[in-house]
Specification:
Strand order of the largest sheet: 3-4-8-5-9-12-10-11
Largest sheet: 8 strands, mixed
Number of helices: 15
Radius of gyration: 22 Å
Strand content: 5-15%
Number of strands: 12
Helix content: 25-40%
Shape: globular
Structural class: alpha/beta
Distance between the termini: 41 Å
Order of helices and strands: HHHEHHEHEEEHEEHEHHHHEEHEHEH
Amino acid sequence: MRLLKIGSTGPAVQLLQLALNRAGYGPLDTDGNFGPGTEAALRRFQAGRGLPADGVAGNQTHRAILPWYLGYITHPVRRGDSVYALAQRYGSSMEAILLANPGVRPEALPLGQELVIPFSFTVVPTNIAYCSALVSYCVRGLAARYPFIGTGEIGRSVMGRPLWRMNLGSGENRVLYNAGFHANEWICVPLLLKFVEELAAAFAAGGRIFSVSAAELMDYASIYLIPAVNPDGIDLVTGELQSGEYYAAARRIGANYPQFSFPDGWKANIAGTDLNLQYPAGWEQAREIKYAQGIVSPAPADYVGPSPLSAPEARAMYDYSLALDPSLILAYHTQGQVIYWKFLDYEPENSRQIAATFSAVSGYGVEETPYASGFAGYKDWFIQQFDRPGYTIEAGLGVNPLPISQFDRIYRDNLGILTMGALVT
């Protein structure tokens, strides 16, 4: 996390404001503007933690407030501790503590062992802009709260940021969901993270999600998710990346293509390659189409790259998909409230019927991909490679990047797709 002080702006400031609220030092508007109110709350937090109360969030302060980024704190067991007392002290619950610490016996807490103590608030925020750091906090926080969630990395971005992988469920039906191929479509990142959190919570409680038993769903399917394929680009669009070599290079790329607003119009990875035009499924046709449109070099959008899979993020998705061998994929984008289900004349078995099911539970239309956008995409390659159902879901309506105020509607519309996607194949 970068140093934050009076005058700082962006998603990191929103996250700090959210954490201060979570820790009881608000209420603050999570507006992303570090003003006097945020400074005063931060000084109170620092004083309460024995830190220099300078109102500047540097490394030491970020470490101190980290539990309220992650949604849990660690506590070394001391003589006299009990699960009940720890739950009372940290505003947690006995059930949440025991779930987060499998194998721990409440009647015999081992002295010195670090226990994970989940806080009472949900991990995944749905009212602030996202950045790569927040994605990492959500992944780590969910895995700590629900140890049955698997996590890892499938690769690294141009800037070296992790491409996180999450998975839950133990069934034979493997499905793969992804979001954030396009930087200014970042609202789909919390969509996947929130789905993981709600499914995990329902499973832990013996409950249901979208009227489906979470236990039965996770017994039938193994759900794998890549929540943010393009973390560098997301940081640029949401204002987390504001300076430095990569930012300066992106500004130069944007200046070559003034038809794309900067940074709101940025879809590409930070090097100017459109990650959804990188796959060996009509890549040459995509290059011909985009070159005819004048996109012949790194650009904020629509540049196919010098060759298929030249971008590290695209290569990571390609290699991981081949290794996982999923039965179905969902690729989340915005906007249009439409489901694209075909590539050329490929029509995998049951793919049309599954698209109809998704339409019925979401209210989204079902269409074939327009010709000018119909080549070299991840969904296109998956259908061609595996001859299995693959879908691009265009969530929400409006002009990208969609405002976070649309999130609740987008989540309601897509919960059925995300649930049924694991069951329909």
